[in-house]
């Protein structure tokens, strides 16, 4: 075996070797094809989000007169899938992005049309589908009769829509936001897996700090890329053009900014006020009440 064999090559070779050909991924799951790839049109995304809201709020009403479910093992399995999956996807993306930055520079990697590679597009699709798996976080809250915080519900629903807009708009800067998010998710979903089993984790408070830091970095880079896009077209001082649709840029800037303010408010309420102990307890018990990010 070649010493230069990549993680992608190892996984691809393993799939071709051990998985029957009829079960290989179809091309429409490896390349974004609007109308063919599942959940690749605006109506589909809208229906999915409406269904999510109907299920969780309808489920909350159904659970009012019923005892809460424990669900320890299913909850741990769910979080294991997400923290292992996030770690694997992060490693695969790093394998694609790091050589690009080394060869062409950081600006190229966030702005050049060629930075939207076929392989990264596939990883973005996988990450997009992760967002729908993460909606199950809220189902656990409902079945365990935990509070449905606005931050949690809004963030989960909006992030699925945000990932859709970036795939549609082919924003080269997407890897920055997704990579930071995956790094946080590795720790976060491990935390929820471990604490569900009774383990005490001392760094819980720092999860929210990491999420806030993540959004600050996201906003700085995404706003920079957006400015380059408009500066190139409107004659403002700029480095160069930045690829991606304007609608995708608008959604990215708007939602990431809203996340930052909402998570800062959550942090202040949880750790800096007298209500902190109550909210902190609810978050610990729920496992997902407001700390979960993309």
TrEMBL record:
Record bears the keyword Zinc: no
Primary enzyme class: transferase
MF terms in GO: fatty acid elongase activity
Domain of life assignment: Eukaryota
Keyword tRNA processing included in the entry's annotation: no
PROSITE patterns: ELO
InterPro entries per UniProt: ELO_CS, ELO_fam
Family: Belongs to the ELO family.
Record key words, sorted: Fatty acid biosynthesis, Fatty acid metabolism, Lipid biosynthesis, Lipid metabolism, Membrane, Transferase, Transmembrane, Transmembrane helix
GO cellular component, one term: endoplasmic reticulum membrane
Principal place of residence: membrane
Descriptive protein name: Elongation of fatty acids protein
One of the protein's GO biological processes: sphingolipid biosynthetic process
Catalytic activity: a very-long-chain acyl-CoA + malonyl-CoA + H(+) = a very-long-chain 3-oxoacyl-CoA + CO2 + CoA; an acyl-CoA + malonyl-CoA + H(+) = a 3-oxoacyl-CoA + CO2 + CoA
Enzyme Commission code: 2.3.1.-
Entry membrane topology: Multi-pass membrane protein
Pfam families: ELO
Annotated compartments: Membrane
Transmembrane feature ranges: 39-59, 80-102, 173-194, 206-227, 247-268
């Amino acid at each position: 075996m070649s010493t230069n064999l990549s993680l992608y090559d190892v996984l691809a070779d393993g799939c071709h070797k051990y998985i029957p050909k009829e079960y290989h991924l179809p091309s429409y799951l490896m390349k974004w094809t609007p109308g063919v790839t599942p959940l690749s049109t605006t109506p589909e995304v809208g229906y999915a989000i409406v269904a999510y809201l109907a299920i969780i709020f309808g489920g909350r009403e159904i659970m009012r007169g019923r005892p809460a479910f424990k669900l320890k093992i299913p909850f741990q399995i769910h979080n294991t899938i997400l923290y292992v999956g996030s770690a694997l996807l992060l490693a695969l993306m790093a394998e694609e992005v790091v050589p690009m930055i080394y060869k062409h520079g950081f600006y190229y990697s966030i702005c050049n049309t060629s930075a939207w590679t076929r392989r990264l597009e596939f990883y973005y699709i996988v990450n997009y589908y992760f967002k729908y798996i993460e909606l199950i976080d809220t189902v656990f809250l409902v079945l365990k009769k935990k509070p449905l915080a606005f931050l949690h519900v809004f963030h989960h629903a909006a992030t699925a829509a945000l990932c859709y807009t970036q795939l549609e708009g082919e924003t080269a800067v997407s890897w920055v936001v997704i990579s930071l998010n995956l790094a946080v998710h590795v720790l976060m979903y491990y935390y929820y897996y471990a604490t569900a089993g009774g383990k005490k984790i001392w760094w819980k408070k720092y999860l929210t700090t990491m999420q806030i830091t993540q959004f600050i970095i996201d906003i700085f880079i995404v706003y920079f890329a957006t400015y380059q896009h408009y500066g190139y077209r409107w004659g403002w001082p700029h480095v160069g053009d930045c690829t991606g649709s304007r609608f995708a840029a608008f959604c990215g800037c708007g939602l990431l900014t809203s996340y930052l303010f909402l998570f800062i408010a959550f942090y202040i309420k949880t750790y800096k006020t007298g209500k902190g102990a109550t909210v902190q307890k609810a978050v610990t018990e729920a496992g997902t009440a407001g700390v979960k990010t993309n």
